Amino acid sequence: MKLNQLILVSFAGLQFIFPALAGDETATNSAGAVPPEIPATVAVSSAPDSSAETAEIEALKKEVQELSQKVSALEQQRELNQPTNATASQEQIEALDQKVRILGRQRELDQETAAAAAKNQPRLSLGANGFSFGSADSNFVVTLHGVLQVDSRTFEQNDKVPGNDSILLRRARPILAGTVFHDFDFLFVPEFGGGTPGASSSATTPSIYDAYVNYRYSPAFQIQAGKFKAPVGLEQLQADVNTSLNERSLVTDLVPNRDLGFELHGDIAGGVLSYAAGIFNGVGDNRNSSNIGFQDNREFDGRLFVQPFKGTELTALQNLGVGVGGSWGDSSITNTLGLPNTTGGSQPGYFTDGQQQFFAYTNGVVAGGTHWRLSPQGYYYYGPLSLMGEYAISDQDVHNGSHSAELQNTAWEISGGWVLTGENATFAGVTPKHPFAPHNGQWGALQVVGRYEELNIDNDAFPFFANPAASASEARAWSVGLNWYLNQNIRVNASFSQTSFTGGNATGSAANTAPGSVADHTENVFFTRVQLCF
Amino acid sequence: MKTFLNILLVLSLTTAVDAKEIKLLNVSYDPTRELYQDYNAAFAKYWKAKTGDDVVVSQSHGGSGKQALSVINGLEADVVTLALAYDIDAIAQQARFLPADWQKRLPDDSTPYTSTIVFLVRKGNPKSIKDWDDVVKPGVIVVTPNPKTSGGARWAYLAAWAYALDKFGHDDAKARDFVKRLYKNVPVLDSGARGATTTFVERGIGDVLLAWENEAHLAIKEFGADKFEIVTPSESILAEPPVAVVDKVAQKHGTTDVARAYLEYLYSDEGQDIAGRNFYRPRSERAAAKYAEQFAKLKLVTVDDAFGGWQKAQKTHFADGGTFDQIYQP
Fold first, then answer.
1. Looking at this predicted complex, what is its ipTM?
2. Which one-letter DSSP state was computed for residue A207?
3. DSSP label at B93?
4. Do A236 and A229 touch, CB atoms closer than 8 A?
5. What percentage of chain B's residues is helix, strand, coil (to nearest 5)?
6. Of residues B298, B270, B295, B296, the one with CA closest to residue B284
């Protein structure tokens, strides 16, 4: 009930109790005494003077009316105040809503600004592919990689060549690679390993293996300058960490290793055709160039390799590649640098899988004149299967005093592998699907590999350029091995190689040193390797 | 007859073989998405009919200043259609991708359409915003992008400044105070005009959006006249968004001819009609007359008249340490 209604009801009650309040003078007069609970003002109205009573009643009526008006006014005021308050509250809510929305948007903008700023921050990454840091736009990148190979070689018939068993750091290379100004790549690879029995000092002391700058105009057009692998042999061009067995085949004995020069190269149509052609100082078979090479003549090396089905839907043939590499030089060198490396012996010559020299030029032989090589080559990878084949001819003019000859040495090899755990084999190695984690029942990837190879020395090499009693004229080898890829970075190998020879049955003092000590019996060698690469 | 048919066949095959697909990249400012979506389709049709070649125009949109910087930093734009001449000047001066006098190469200072800055308010105009004076009142929340990155925001800033100059008898100090009060009402700065429109229209932030005229019309067209109203101030600025071929990039891509034709076609009857249809003020009298009703009449000052040109305006107001940096307190 509203306040004015309450008052009016009260006033009606008073009229019921005191009819005089309703203007009925008779009733008022007959009322007699005033009840004690009646207010004084009302009691006064019960006075006997009728005019006075009327006046009082009028006054009371007026007072009641005024009160009623006040109540009405108050009620109206209250009703008016209600929407005002509601409006104020609504405005407050809207203002708060705006503030919340604004704060939300500011937060989003701050995040956008932070994300934009993050894009301009240098990038840092550490993972299976090495440690890398570079500018936000990738125009400048430096990557640190490394290779460590801890090998063991254990020879049967150890008494024939004492001291050739070994645990050795085959390779220990920190690798610094990178890019400057987006299109210029560089690579710097020093070698701190080595330890090949009887190797030359250059192989056992720290030396620079790769140091070059490469300008990439496009994938199809690149120019490289510095010291790097000459583009001839297929297995030679495969990364050291990805070869199927510990040591490369006898074919690699006949092709150049790293040389100093300039090379134009590229991949056309996404690698369907790869080409490389360069001019180099020129090195002997399987030799690494020193960091200088003062000579007047140069060697031209080149290679074409085609993968005709690369990128096609013929998945079984996508990784079929065939090519040919070659070199030609007309050297006036009259010293031993144009001859093969001295690995495994004291004189230039060729060596076995066990890195022992089975053929050596006799002291006094020098290179001079034309030296050309030709190497047809190919590989095939499909799923866990890998196959590689290569043939090489190294044709070289040599001199020994008054004797001269053009010697044509040849070699070939075929190798294959199968990944037992089902991963894909590639020219760039095997990546295990389940990296080694024995607690989770994961053991990495296993691959079996095998190889057969031969190297034939030109018969004209004997006897004026090589001692037939010490050097073999032919080496034939087969190898089997097991490669365990624990993860992308760690690999453990074990393999066995057997090499047999034709010729080289040395006697006397020649039988005590390589090649005589090597070629007079079949070489059986067991290899192991623990490899870290990142 | 057979020989004739053979010749026709050979000719048609030759034509088919010769037909090329040409790709252009148009780097533009924020609110031109709809305009160039329409225009690119029209131009492709025109070019196909004229030459037989297919043209595919890709678009990149963002704050005008930001877009110019992207082009300078290597975004390979065949053409740029930016919010103001200063941004294309920056490409010419810093990257030297086009000559300094690029603006003389096409009619109307290479500005095929114009626009201006208006107010977009919520339906019923609850804050009773009628002119710039209402925008600077305390308690009014104003949405406008960052003049450092957005061309539209720079036009809006200068429009407010020009109004204040007229109001206060060209008293720079008072104009500065006026614009300072305006930016005191700006709680967030989006990087581009489209972002600011989204903030106002979709996020429901603010009482008034300082909007490109075409953007305001588009918001009403898209979201309905029952939600927003356009308020035209008594005075604003004549916004002249220019276009230019980025010579070095077009030469590299071999697209110079088609890029030039692409911009020239903006001045054609069809190009002008598309501009008008998308709420840009066309240059041609014919299209201007056709779309006259959709554009309010108001006093429009030019950046040249009121500020001595873009170079001066940029240096005074928007360069690092300029007036905007001094008056805006985030």
1. 0.77
2. E
3. I
4. yes
5. 55, 15, 30
6. B270
